[in-house]
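Section 5.1 Outputs to date
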Amino acid sequence: MPNVPRARRVGAPLIVIGLLAASFSLPAYATSPAPKKAPVKQQGKSKPKPMSRDQLRSCMDQQDRLMVMRESVLKEQTSLDQQRAEVKSMDAELERKRAALDPADAVAKQALQDEEARRNQLGDTYNARLPGLKEQGATLDKERQSWVERCADKDFDEIDEAAIKRERQRAAKAAGTKTPAK
């Protein structure tokens, strides 16, 4: 390259490359800036009024009743589970005895029939108790749902809660019983 200064030979291609890179980073068309939105104002949303002390007391009483109902349902469920396990073990024992039974042994046949009668009686007792448990569970679910609608996620004054707990402790001392720890 005759008579072209060295800075021009090296600098010109760099300028061209820089301009090309800059043109790719710019949008192909000019855009107007996005219109600024006015800040959204709260539409008069005030905090909901906290529950009164009587409402809170009612919710706490219902919660205590729900705990008692739940314990009762769990106790009945445990009892029925044990009874069911007993029936199943009796079934397995009866099957084992039937397989080993000598058809000519009348005494063994009678003993097996007596055991089957006891097993059937236990199974009938289980079947009779089962609808009661289902009803208790449905009642518990209905009461719990009622509590959730009335009491859950509602604001209350913690001072009221503490006062109600103190009232309960005083009443329990006067009656000579213990209140559940909460």
